[in-house]
Fold this sequence. Notes:
The chain has helices spanning about 15, 30-40, 50-60, 90, 105-110, 130-135, 155-170, 175-190, 195-200, 200-220; strands spanning about 1-5, 20-25, 45-50, 65-70, 70-75, 95-100, 120-125, 140-145, 175, 230, 235. It is an alpha/beta fold. A hairpin with a 2-residue loop joins β4 (about 65-70) and β5. α7 crosses α8 (about 175-190) and α9 runs antiparallel to α10.
Amino acid sequence: MRNINVCLSPALYEFYAEDDSVVVMIDAIRASASICTAFHSQVELIIPVSDVETARSYKEKGFLIAGERDGYKIEGFDFGNSPFNFTEDTIKNKKLAFTTTNGTQVINKVINGTQRNVNLIIGSFINISALKEYLLHQEKNVLILCSGWKNSVNIEDTLFAGRLAYLLKGKSFELSESANLAIQIYLASGNSYYDFILNNSPRLKEKSEFLEADFKYCLSENLTTVVPFFNKGILTC
């Protein structure tokens, strides 16, 4: 039996990390969906970076640059963190450097860690069925790593973790306590993800007026079959 574990905050990653595992990075609103959308729109590659100035330096190398801090587009960048930015017209066959408040920080935490043979992939509601099928065919333990919000637990990533764990439950996987806890959050949502999140997250409710379309897109299932993964310094697909 393989194990499914859920790490609810990147601050706890060192307690869950293990060699020879699959790590599913999730930043449900919005980085994960934006990355998946960019690959669906045939971006060539994405380099996730932790800080703004490093992202800016890629502009001189011919990259497009995208990023946000606290949900807002960084001044001077080509794009923010809305999945609607990444259409074929804007991104096809282009190289992208990407920095976000949470998601790209977590990617770099994993790739700079000491664990060996870690397969890092990107998970989102928009690719969840393809993600499930991918994980079913792996022979490794799975860690669903929530990006959270500035190292604190958030409702949207926990909800996604529960949904994914629920889809894999009973399929040669043994679930941890944290996975079962996340499943209870998913079940409590009654599959009404948007309403459930706004009713339980003052942080996201404050931003819902100008980000409603992004939120609803990011919480929609199976809009793409891509499963982006990290390999030799880049995200690819």
